[in-house]
Structures are given as structure tokens and as C-alpha cells.
Amino acid sequence: MTRLEAAALQASSMIEPTTARTVLSVENLVVGYPVDGRMIKPVDGLSFKVREREVVGLIGDAGSGKSTAALALLGLARAPGKILGGKVEFDGRDLLKLPDAEIRAIRGRDIGIIVQNPRSSLNPMLRIGKQIGYAYQAHNAASGQQLRRKAIDMLRMVGINDPERRADSYAHELSGGMAQRALIAMALSSKPKLLIADEPTSGLDVTIQAQFLDEMWNTVQQTGSAILLITQELGTLANYCDRVLVLHEGRIVEDAPVREFFANPQHPYSQQILKLQRERGSSLGLELPEGGVKPLLQTRDLRKTFAVQHTKKTIQAVDKVSLSIGRGETLGLVGESGSGKTTVGRCLLRLLEPTSGSVVFDGEDLVKLPPNDMRRYRSKLQIVFQDPFDSLNPRWTIRRILCEPLDLHSNLSAADKNKRAEELIDLVDLDRTLLDRKPRGLGAGALQRINIARALACNPEFIVLDEPTSVLSPRARVGLIELLVRLQKELGISYLFISHDLTTVRYLCHKVSVMYLGQIVETGTVEQVFSRPQHPYSQALLSAHLFPDPTNRRVDKVIPAALEGEIPSPIDLPIGCYLASRCPHVVEACRSTPQTLEPVDTGQEVRCWRAAAGEITAFKGAHA
Amino acid sequence: MLFRYISKRFAVGLIQLIGLTIAVFFLIRLLPADPVSRLVGMNSSAEAYAQAAKQLGVDRPLLAQLATYLGFQPDIAPGLLQGSLGVSWVTGTPVTTEIAAYLPVTIELVTLSFILALAVAVPIGMFGALNPGGKADKGVFVYSLFAGSQPEFWWGLLFVYLFFFQLGIAPAPLGRLSPMSSPPDVVTGFMTIDALIAGQFDIFVEALHHLMLPVFTMAFILSGPIIKMVRQNMARALQSDFVLYANCAGLPRARVARYALRAAMAPSMTLIGILYGFMLSGAVLTESVFSLGGIGQYAISAVLNYDYPAIQAVVLVITAISLVVYLALDLIHAAIDPRIAY
User: Fold this and answer.
1) Are residues B62 and B103 in the same domain?
2) Which of A305, A329, B127, B275 could be a cystine partner for A314, CB 3.0 to 4.6 Å?
3) Which parts of the chain span the membrane according to its record (chain B) (predicted)?
4) Cβ contact A121–B244 (<8 Å)
């Protein structure tokens, strides 16, 4: 034994009581894909251990090999990939050396896996209950009615309402969240000793995500198994994991207990992704001048409805939204999917025509402008979309993409346009050599920078950022946030930052508005809303959000009850408060009285008469 | 729901058929041909010609002829509304009777060929997808190119030479039964079924024996595209997320293969339906080689003789059958794949 190994052994015995048995031990695992005659190795020399009753987090960038590694632990690789070498020892046996029938017996029975894309992972042609039954039958002696009963029990356990009916559904009839639960039910049906969860909550809303991870965590605590939790979210790591593994370029570059990881990351990659956490926003310099700033854009009673086809009904997407954004200021717009955030962003630019209300930009009501005059304002107001891939023409070079707005809004000569394109690419910290490439093959982070550069081409004063970081890897996200802050400081731009990720909002925004069912329910400074949320919906949203803080873990504290029930349909809205059917503080008056935004003592405005009257107990956010 | 869907499909099919009937009626009459002189001969007198034209009804205005054909003037002659497809201008027999004699031959041939082709092609395609790049897979690839690239009458002749002339295990390619046997009473028109109904088991075996080579020829040609299609759909199914997950859950190999096969067969149904409709008239070359006298041959002689009622009837009947087959296969598709909504 070398000194290094001895040190490592000693270190690991300090972290974990010596009684904890190793469940899984991976050594030098290599997975390769043939690409153009060469072998690309997304997993290249992976080694780590998972012990009993341990929740181990595995984090890494997009393309770092996380999902490939997860499959390889079961001896599987997506075609045409192959496991080229290494050892996966489970219960003392090397899985990679077992014959097909024996490894099939271990998959699902001893090692369960939850994958990222639940709906496509369920057989579209079989009823959910039947599939769960087959998975159970593969490892347990049971048949007929027993299988169905087991499937229903499992569905009930993972929190599916009316499991008897759901057992007879097909995958395409389930929502994403329900499909995810069905997959969990299948993965847990044989009580595996190890659960591999590959981004189990990607695509779920914050409130459901937390509920869901809580359930998974509880299940594992009860059954005494171990979890390998693969994630791109620092919040998930901090709140649920005991130990963190960092995967970079196909191998583990850091292996540390969760608190140590957040307090003192060792590898440069870890330091990069934790940069914002550790600096706590202080160096981002979000201070605004004393006494506030002059408003640049203000909306009053903005409404947007969509007609429902073949009926006289309408969907209320945005309802009486009034907001104000100052020069050089960032307003965060948060809420779950379907709350109307994106519609607000598009109405500001008249990409969607508002049904009523005004959008005053620099003294001019944009809604009233005839199309020709509106065109003059287009260069002043820009937008960056969520999906960086779809918003760039794949057939154009980056240079042409960046020059397009100049063609439309300026009279520059060709040489000047080229010069401007080079300035823009410098401005977003990309290499000038990219100018003559096409978007194909670039990462999401680089593409999103190009989208931002294009938005900046004509010196806008205001940019709508519609979830620009949500598809980015942790490292690209950190880079993009820093870039946005720097650009604001240098160019004095105002942002409307639309996001469901409260952690990012906290770093980037001065003020924040919380939306629910098309209405703003609370608006105030980030400090006010994050540390003392007043509206019951803001409180629920904040308590469900997983902040990347391992000293205040969700699993270590009593969690306030989540909102119950379903979001009402935006077609048949309640008369009174929209949250009344789900609110823990509801009284009879709430159901009949329409709510208005009212100022409260703590400084922000809240659309809840009980909060305005000081009747709702304060909630400790403790995260601002 | 199902009943509503089927009635809707039938209603749409009926509209298609009516449109088709009218279109075909006019299109045939646009042909630069004179069916009357074909019947009475080039050198006949003007009176004989006029007499024949009057008999066939072609001296009347086109719209009046159409009305009669559709059955709006039953006092002149029964039409479609009365369930009559008209009388053949050449033989003078009702077209319905003639079709009833010719159509079952083709349906019997094509259906048996499809059953054989599917029975062979599906397992082979499945095997190829499960072992991609293997020897069998490569062999199948060569076969499907080879078999499909040469016309079926040519394969038919080769098989006759090999199995009848050289090996002597197949009967002579001279119809549905040997000239010495007497056919059973016609009930359905299908030789095999009629033989069974009549209780003549020896005739049943003989009919099958005579169908052996033509069915083999057709299946030989059909298998190529079916294998390719099954293999491709199966390969795609095997790479799908749910098959990967089935492996992750440790399901037995046989169960995983069944998952994939079901996913592969669902989209194959559409192509099989189109192929079947196509083969109803496309079987004519095989029918000719084996002297089977099916609907394809009937259609060709009708066209060559300008026998307008017969041409119209063949188009109508084959279209109707194709529509029913499409509907049946769409229903099977929906039964396999619950995502298909009516």
C-alpha cells in the first residue's frame, strides 16, 4: 500500500463509520463510442465507491459522461457504445464479467435506476401497471392478480393519486411528473440495495422537484439502501447528498463530504462551479445608486388573453401586470411553468400584442405605436430566448448572425459591420475565430453568448432574458451570470430576467416579482422577497427551492407543508384569490374577494389581503 | 368510439368510391378508341354499327349513360344502385358474375403469399436486427436486393423449371387443379375453401399443391421489402429508450425482444396494407405464368377489348378491397399501439 492510498483510506474512515459496508466499487471503468473510425471515451478511468446508507452526489458538466457512467454501472451502453474495460464490483462480484442471465438478475433487483427521460423510457404500448408488474416478476415469484396488486401498491407508495386508475394508463397519458413517479415505482419495486438516479427531477417544477426528492430520500432511509444521485444542480447536492463526486472528462476529479466540498473545493472545475456560492454575490457588485434609479420601462395593467379554439372562452395568460424597471436595473420574474412569465416578456416587445394595458418605454407607450414607429424601437429592446440552439440559424456563420441586426437597423459599411461583429464577439468573451464557424458543434454556453452578442449588436437599452441559463451546464451557467452582470455594469443595460431558478435570480437581480396564474402576487427587492416573503405562494416557492447551502439542508429540518392540490385552469379562474383553493391560510373571505397588490410593512407589495393586514405568520427565508 | 370511427371511415370510403366511379367513367371515354367498331369489326355496315352502338347504349348522351350506369334509370338497365356492375360488352355476361369467378383466385393467391411472406420475413428481419452486421444479416441484405431487382415472372419461370421440370415436386403450371380433377361446387369461389366445404379433402390438397409455386414466387418477391422494413423498424425499436430501460430493469431477454417486436410491427402495418392493395392487381404476371386466371388477367383482357363496364368494375372492386384492407390494418395498428387515437 502506498502512502497516498493509506492516506486516502484513513481519510475515508474518518468520514464514514468503519461499519459502513461498501456496496458498489468501481475501478478504472472505460466506455467508448466509435466516431469516424476513432474511439471517443466519455468515461475514461472512472473509479469510486458507494457505501451502505449513503447518498452520493455525482456532478459534472454536460458531456462529462454522467449518464454513460450510470448505464455502464449496470453493464450497459447505448449502441454503438461499448464498455472497454474496468471493474464494477457489487456485493463482491464483478458485474462486467457475469454472464447475461446473471447480470439481468442483478439489474432491477439489486441495482435500480431512474433515468432522465421518464416518458420515453416507459413502454408506450403497455399499461403502466403491467410494466411495473413485469419488472417485479423478473425478480420475484408472482403472477396474475398479485402483480397487479404489487403495481398498484408501488404507485401508491410513490404518491400517485388513484393508483388503480393510473395502473391502467399508458405512458403518453401521464404528465412528466407522473411518468417519473411510475419509473421510480418500477425501479424500487424489488427493493434494490443501490438506487442510481440520473437527474431524476430535470424538467419538473420546483415545488414538485423538492417533494419528489424528499420522497426518494425518505424511501431510501426506510429501506436502508444507498443512492447515487447524478445531478447538474448544486442545490440538489447540498440538500440531499452526504458526499460529492465531481466527474470531469470521464473521471472523478474530486471526492469530498458535502460540507467540505462547498467550503473548500479542491479541483479547478469545482472551484469554478462554486465561485458564485463562495463569493455570495458580493463581488458581482449589484449595488444601485442611493435613492433608486429612473424608470426606463413601465407597464400598467398589462393583460393578454388567448382565445380557446371552437369556444367563446379565453385563457387568461397575463392579468393586470404592472411592473417598473429602472435604467441599469434587473428585475427578476419568477414562478412555475405556466404562470405567464414568458408571455409578459413577449408582450413587452410586442412579439405578442397585449390585449390591453400599456408598456411605456422612455416616455413612449409602445402598445399605441404604429408598426413603422415600433420598428425604430426594436433595436432598443431585445430578447434572448431559453433555447440557444433553436434561436440561431444553423446554416449561417456566426458573423452573418451577428451582422443581421446591423443590416436591419444601421447604415454601416460592410467593413464597419465586420468590425462591429468582432467587437461583439470580444464583448461576450468568445474567440474571434468562431466568427467564420456555424453554430453546429458549439456548446450551449457558447451559443447563448452568441445570442447575447446578437441582442447587443444595436446597443439596446433593455433586454428580456427568457430563462437564458436553464439549459446550461453548471459551469456555463456561472460564466453566463458573470457575463450578464459585467455587461450591465459596462453598458448600463436593464434586464427583465425570467427564470424559475431562484438561486440565479438571487445573484443577478435587484428586484423580483413572483407570478402565479398570470398575476404578480408579490414584488419587492431581492432582499425583501427572499428573506421575508409575505405572500403564501412566494413562501411556498421559496421553501421548496433547493438553495445550494449544505449548512441548512432540507433533509435536516422540518419542512413546511407544500401547497396542496392542482393549479386552477386559466380558463375558469376563481372569483377571489387565485391561490385560495391551495392556500394554507385561506379564510372564507379570500374566495370571494379579488385581490390587489398592496404595500406591506416589510417594504414589498403583496397581492394578499391577509398578508397586508399582517395576519400571516412570518416565514424565515434565511437565504438572502 | 370504435364504431363511430369505422362508420366514418366507411362513409369517407364511399365518397371516394363514388368520386372514383365518376372519374373513371369519363376518363375511359376520353380514350381515343372506338369500342363499337372493335366489336362489330372494321368492315361492318353502317347499320350494323348503329345497331351495335344502340345495343351498348353508347349512342345516348354521356350523362344519360352515366345515369344508367349509376342506376338512376332501372327501367333501361340495372345499375350500381341495383347492385349491378353492368354487362360485359364482349361476353354478354353480367360483370358481377365474371368478377366473382376471377377475384377469389387472386385474393387466395395474394393472401396466402402474404401469410407465407410474413411468416418467413418477420423472424428473419427480427434476427437481423438482433444480430446486426452478422453473416445472416448480410446475407439477407443481398437477398432482398437480389430478389426485388428481378421481375416476378422471371422468378416464376425459374421456379417452374427447377421444381416442376427438374425436381418434379411441383405440378405443371396449368391452373388451379389438374385437368383431370373436377372442381368442387362453387360456394365462395376460393378453391381451397370450397373443397373443404364439399368435404373433398383430396381436392383441397391438390388445390394447395397447385398454389405452392405461385405462392412461393410471390412470397419470394414480397419477403425482400418486408424483411428490410421489419429489420429497420426493429433496429430502431431496439435503440429506443424504453428497450434500454427494460434492460436496465433486468427483464428477461425474451421479454425485451417482444417489447421491441411489438414496437416494430406497429408502423409496419401501413406498408403491408399498401403492398397488399398493390399486389391485388400486381399479381397479374404471376397469374399469367401459372395460368391462374385471376383479376389481373381479367383486367388486362378488359382493357384490350375496350370492355368499359369490366374496366370500371375492376377499378371499383380493387379500390373497395384496398380501402377495407387499409381500414383493417389501421385497426390492427391501433390495437398494437395505444397511442394511435381514432
Assistant:
1) no
2) A305
3) 12-32, 109-133, 153-174, 211-230, 259-279, 310-329
4) yes
